[in-house]
From TrEMBL:
<feature type="region of interest" description="Disordered">
    <location>
        <begin position="44"/>
        <end position="76"/>
    </location>
</feature>
<feature type="compositionally biased region" description="Basic and acidic residues">
    <location>
        <begin position="55"/>
        <end position="70"/>
    </location>
</feature>
<dbReference type="Pfam" id="PF04305">
    <property type="entry name" value="DUF455"/>
</dbReference>
<dbReference type="InterPro" id="IPR011197">
    <property type="entry name" value="UCP012318"/>
</dbReference>
<protein>
    <submittedName>
        <fullName>Uncharacterized conserved protein, contains ferritin-like DUF455 domain</fullName>
    </submittedName>
</protein>
<dbReference type="InterPro" id="IPR007402">
    <property type="entry name" value="DUF455"/>
</dbReference>
<dbReference type="InterPro" id="IPR009078">
    <property type="entry name" value="Ferritin-like_SF"/>
</dbReference>
Length: 275
């Protein structure tokens, strides 16, 4: 049976280890949330205690990013490695979106905040499954290769700070996805892998909204606390994100998501970072 509050539902997803099971549960919970919303008897948000780290399957083996073997992106093995890395990112993203709901259930927020992250978690679950289908169509699967161990660090670092979480996860990490996805689509297009191209186009279209939700609720909280959004963003990213942001930036999609250039350029490495 499902949890009776949204934060309990989130914890159930976070404590499910298997990727396909986690995403199936995530999609069921999202459907239940929106069905209840539509019927006019909202599921209460409640409060719950999420695990410090989400449950993970035994495979993939998690390695320090420096120890994850690199393969040429043009080779079939290189493309499998990209798909595997994307699947790993999507699975983490499922947990990140449920974690923001569970972790900050005590912070009073408009219901739209919860709608946005439930919808995002549902979309990430779809993304994980689409990319797993691509891996399986190419004779592989999620878990066949090692994956980055550091992906939950941003969540742990910002476990006490909702504005920090919004700044670092949707507005930095997910925005980075907007920068790199067109290049990945190009690689799979060149190789004639139409399944992967289609999957990545879905991801690319939907991720813009996740960044936009981050920006929307970040600005909302700045308004609540009478803070200057750009200054606070710079402070929080410098505090919680380790290292400079990497250009080139997808300025067009970032703008569409409500991220103005004066938010990210001053945090970038290179000559433009001085200002
Ligand atoms: Fe995604
Ligand atoms: Fe996302």
């Amino acid at each position: 049976m499902t949890g009776t509050t949204l934060t309990q539902m989130a914890v159930e997803v976070l404590t499910t280890a298997d990727g396909r099971e986690k995403t199936a549960l995530s999609r069921r919970h999202a459907a239940a949330w929106f069905a209840a919303r539509e019927a006019g008897h909202d599921i209460p948000v409640g409060t719950a205690t999420p695990p410090l780290r989400p449950a993970r399957p035994e495979r993939p083996e998690l390695l320090d990013p420096r120890d994850v073997p690199r393969r040429r992106p043009g080779s079939p093995q290189g493309r499998l490695a990209i798909l595997h890395a994307v699947a790993h990112i999507e699975l983490n993203a499922v947990d990140l979106h449920w974690d923001i709901i569970a972790r900050f259930g005590h912070v009073p927020m408009p219901i739209g905040f919860h709608d946005d992250w439930v919808k995002s978690a549902d979309e990430e679950s779809k993304h994980f499954n689409l990319i797993c289908d691509c891996l399986e169509a190419n004779g592989s699967h999620y878990g066949a290769l090692p994956a980055h161990a550091g992906m939950w660090r941003a969540a742990e670092d910002t476990a006490q700070d909702l504005m920090g979480r919004l700044a670092v996860v949707p507005m930095v990490l997910e925005a980075r996805g907007l920068d790199v996805t067109p290049g990945m689509i190009g690689i799979f297009d060149k190789a004639g892998d139409t399944r992967a191209v289609e999957a990545m186009k879905v991801i690319y279209a939907e991720e813009v909204h996740h960044v936009a939700y981050g920006s929307k609720w970040f600005h909302f909280l700045c308004g609540r606390h009478d803070l200057d959004p750009k200054e606070v963003f710079h402070d929080l990213v410098r505090r919680y994100f380790h290292g400079p942001l990497k250009p080139p930036f997808n300025e067009e999609k970032r703008a569409e998501a409500g991220l103005p250039p004066d938010f990210y350029w001053p945090l970038a490495d290179g000559p433009a970072a001085e200002s």
